[in-house]
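Quick illustration for those who missed Monday's session on complexes.
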Amino acid sequence: MNIILFGPPGAGKGTQAKYLVKKLNGYQISTGDILREEIKKDTDIGKKIINHMNEGKFVSDEIVNSLLKNHVFDPIKKEKLIFDGYPRSITQAKNLDALLIDSKQKINHIFFLNVNKETIVKRIKKRKILEKRSDDDLDTILKRYDTYIETTKPVLDFYSKNSNFHEIDGAMEIDQITSKIETFLNV
Ligand code: AMP
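Prediction with adenosine monophosphate bound:
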């Protein structure tokens, strides 16, 4: 089963992705984690993207798409992909469609965790204390939310007509969101 978790930064996609990984024996494909790893390893890509990431701006579609490809084609991860934070633009959504066709896969469920800006700001402030992420200061949070509204929201229109698209109230408690997701999984 392949799943996309979709929603603004701080909506709880990472938390639900980790649950789904356990439940379905899946693999979390977090482009945020993949990009942070490039920075940690100080690779050429890492050097290119560090400022963008710290400013809360999107990394170019070209870089993200190139890093994603190996995961989609990885035979171990096939049919067990839990996308967290990808796709975030129409270009990325179209790229994912093409990669899925080429690798003979499809998306079974798209979960849209919908949360308002106030709740997100509160949550990310808390996460900053817990995880010490350098891109979690308030200005960056607001910038990331604005980027989300501008670039990522159109992706909703791309997916929302699909019968496997499910909108979930992301302001609910973690367990309630998990239960809601489970009702669609039939496992
Ligand atoms: P996340 O961990 O998903 O909140 O992502 C953290 C940061 O990584 C974002 O603010 C972007 O700078 C970058 N990023 C993660 N995923 C993507 C993506 N799909 N496209 C572009 N930039 C991304």
